[in-house]
Specification:
By secondary structure, the protein is mostly beta strands. It contains two helices and 27 strands.
């Protein structure tokens, strides 16, 4: 993953620098992340919330499923999943999906915080949808809530409230998982949670308006690295032929989960093989950023890979669905470590990691909490000296 540094340098200095073959080789064939001590030090004993954190970090419970969010009149939804933060004047808003059926409250909710991080209001921004798993934030500050069912849709929602969510059928009907916006190429990347799933991108007719556009699918070989191209999906509606089966030569990914864009790079996770993939968009190549089978010496710290986000320092934070109930950290120099561990919740999963605008608070949820049920969800906030 040293390609991240390489890309930043080459983009800034394009046309001004000539790279030697050895430097190019080092960037192009960097090994997947390996075990190392974390930048924040060892985990401390579990705190009163059952969370192990590095020294200097603290946690708080922001919301619990079925209970009123403190300082508001809103009851928090079931099975909190993907999430994101949005600036809101002097404070911010945290949005969270609800991965349940329409009849059980599927959709998304939001919590508004003041500058001190105290909730001031909470409310629904999407209702009546199914298995809203992950999603993604747009540059125009909407939240794309994705339905994880075979005929799933993308819903564009409005974190500030007061505006009805809008379905975006041009973005395709398939087992949607996550979305990531690329403002440079003016596209939205989309993952698909199937064992033979694909990676897609949506090119809006007009950037900032998702009402119409072109859905494309990634084509590549079967290896874990190489070059890729994009091909149009003939029928984004996916009926009668699923979108992933309409184009020949597509690259199959085993259970697409979270995705994150930064610095001409897309990172996305696949849970079926415990991998983090890296698309180098400046030169249309792909490679592995992490593979639990390639950690040497082991054991691999990250299994059950799921949602992913990034910090201002370029660190990636990857949440586990199962595993040891950890959020792991991958640094720009290809080192992986455990940032936090939630104890006593082995029947749950961690999801929805997102930083507030200042980058000093990390929100995430335990979808089923200590109960192992969708009615036991807990949403947390971790505060501390995050690298910027």
């Amino acid at each position: 993953m040293e390609r991240r540094t390489f890309l930043r340098t080459s983009v800034v200095g394009a046309g001004a620098l000539t790279f030697s073959g050895s430097l190019w080789q080092r960037a192009a064939y960097a090994a997947p992340a390996q075990n190392a001590a974390g930048p924040y030090g060892a985990l401390q004993a579990a705190n009163s919330h059952g969370i192990q954190l590095p020294a200097g970090f603290t946690s708080q419970i922001v919301a619990r499923t079925g209970q009123v969010v403190s300082g508001t009149s809103y009851t928090w939804h079931r099975a909190p999943d993907g999430g994101a933060c949005f600036a809101d004047g002097t404070g911010w808003i945290y949005v969270s999906n609800s991965e349940t059926s329409a009849g059980s409250g599927g959709g998304a909710s939001a919590i508004r915080f003041n500058s001190a991080g105290t909730p001031t209001s909470a409310y629904r921004i999407l209702s009546g949808t199914n298995n809203n798993c992950a999603g993604g934030k747009t540059p125009w500050n909407t939240w794309l809530s994705c339905e994880e069912v075979d005929t799933g849709r993308v819903w564009e929602t409005y974190p500030g409230g007061g505006t009805a969510a809008v379905v975006r059928p041009a973005m395709g009907r398939f087992n949607h998982e996550a979305a990531a916006a690329d403002p440079v190429r003016r596209v939205i990347y989309l993952t698909e949670d199937k064992s033979d799933g694909c990676l897609y991108r949506f090119i809006p007719t007009s950037w900032g308006n998702l009402a119409s556009g072109t859905l494309q699918v990634l084509r590549a070989g079967t290896a874990t690295s190489g070059s890729f191209t994009w091909a149009n999906v003939p029928d984004p509606d996916g009926s009668p032929t699923a979108t992933r089966n309409q184009v020949s030569g597509v690259k199959r990914f085993n259970g697409g989960e979270g995705c994150h864009y930064a610095n001409d790079t897309l990172w996305f996770t696949t849970k079926g093989d415990n991998r983090v993939w890296q698309l180098n968009l400046a030169n249309s190549t792909y490679e592995l950023a992490y593979d639990d089978n390639l950690v040497n010496p082991g054991p691999a710290p990250l299994t059950g890979v799921d949602n992913i986000t990034g910090s201002g320092s370029g660190d990636l934070f990857v949440a586990e669905d199962g595993g040891n109930m950890e959020i792991c950290l991958i640094t720009p120099d290809d080192k992986i470590s455990v940032f936090l561990r939630v104890t006593g919740q082995s029947s749950s999963e961690l999801c929805g990691p997102a930083f507030n605008p200042a980058g000093n608070r990390l929100y995430f949820s335990s979808q089923r909490g200590t109960s192992g049920s969708s009615t036991g969800g807990i949403t947390y906030c971790v505060t501390g000296p995050f690298r910027s």
